[in-house]
Design brief:
By secondary structure, the chain is mainly α. It is built from five helices and no strands. Helix 1 packs antiparallel against helix 2 and helix 3 packs antiparallel against helix 5.
């Protein structure tokens, strides 16, 4: 047996606001991009170490690709950050130590990309390896300072 449904009444709301009431959730896109670029820069250190131990040119190629991908994502993160500031989004706490540390790491990675563009062995040992290690140290220090400042602002001091 089939049942049929009929629509008997329609209601139109004339003063409805067509704008979305959805609130952005989770982390902003620039934080995701920064996280991925940090992972790429860290991966470049690991592949530099692998090249240093094995002398297999594949690891040096991986390093330059990881550095390049990290730099591209860092550029997108900077663009997303500027768009967010232009849109009037507020920053919860002072972000300058994190921004300065991340910018320093990106500049060192840019230099590292030029160093890695040389011939295989001279591209990695010792300059490329030291630059990759320095980038990771700067990122770790930046994360530590950023975390300390976030904890201090949560405590209220």
């Amino acid at each position: 047996m089939q049942q049929h449904a009929t629509i008997t009444d329609t209601t139109f709301i004339s003063n409805a606001d067509p704008s979305s009431t959805a609130k952005p959730r989770g982390r902003p896109i620039q934080k995701w991009l920064v996280s991925f670029s940090i992972a790429y820069f860290t991966g470049a250190l690991l592949t530099d170490l692998a090249y240093w131990q094995t002398l297999n040119v594949m690891w040096e190629r991986f390093s330059i690709w990881l550095i390049t991908a990290g730099l591209i994502l860092a550029g997108f993160a900077a663009l997303a950050y500027v768009i967010g500031l232009a849109a009037g989004r507020q920053i919860d706490r002072p972000a300058w130590p994190g921004v300065i540390g991340y910018a320093l790491a990106v500049l060192l990675s840019l230099v590292n990309a030029f160093v890695h563009s040389r011939d295989a062995y001279t591209a990695v040992v010792p300059t490329g390896l030291m630059l990759s290690g320095l980038v990771v140290v700067v990122l770790l220090l930046t994360a530590w300072v950023d975390t300390a400042l976030a904890n201090r602002s949560r405590v209220g001091g």
